[in-house]
Design brief:
By secondary structure, this protein is of the alpha+beta class. The chain has a single domain, classed as Transferase(Phosphotransferase) domain 1 (Transferase(Phosphotransferase), domain 1), CATH 1.10.510. Helix 1 packs antiparallel against helix 3. The longest helix has 23 residues. GO terms for molecular function: ATP binding; protein kinase activity.
Length: about 110
Amino acid sequence: MPAWVQGVEYMHKLHIVHLDICLDNAVYAFPRHAATDRRLVANKVYFMDFHTSRQLVLEPGRQPPITLPPSQVEKPEGVTALDPYSFDVYSAGMLMQHILQVRATHDCY
């Protein structure tokens, strides 16, 4: 399982929804970075910018829709409210699509 998917899964286990998962809000710790800061784990993805995130009472699968806050991720056309966990998964899928497009174009990953 990719590290960033594990990160989303971990947040959701804690009932935290990020609501703005995108390339600009994810940082990958390469081994060279982890060697300079003991708080970092090599090959791990860290999410940042939690200003729109929420900690929910209900777990995934039980949360009713909420009005989605503004985010860098383009929402599906006509969607203004959604299960927030589902929106995180949608956003993570959009992130994966972006990574795969960059990889195919630049062969850099």
